[in-house]
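Need tokens for this chain, all 167 residues.
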Amino acid sequence: MSAGISTAPGPYCELHAHSCFSLLDGVPFPEELAEAAAARGLPALALTDHDAVYGAVPFFARAREVGLKPLLGAEMTLADGAHLTLLAEDQGGYQNLCRLITLARAERPKGQAALPWESLAAHSAGLVCLTGCRRGPVAGGLRCGRTAPPTSTWCWTTGQSRAGALR
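Here are the structure tokens for all 167 residues:
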């Protein structure tokens, strides 16, 4: 270890928070989430409602007012029923997130979404993908008794499917 480099963990930051815009999953208004996070001393908070960014503007405004770094994202429902949480790294990522939400909801009954994996791959620039949801592909595989990683993965940087285990 190099001198002067700390290995201590940084401050906690919640990266998967739902507001009242995630029906049956979140209760507080987005502004209340920002206030509660700031009151607890969190440096940042990610608002990740289901298949939507309805609360992004009030969350962003209130977070900035209370000195909290707002992170915007969404928990996306994929065509196979799995969930992935996507966080926007920058303006381009937010644009891609909005595009993916539109694609997931297109030609679906109101309130439903199903994002094809191919669309996710085509619009992944500027996004960070988390698989921690209990309905995510990793957790789903573990619930089904799979203990080995998948035999193929999608390489986000090249847009190619490749054989081999996740690393």
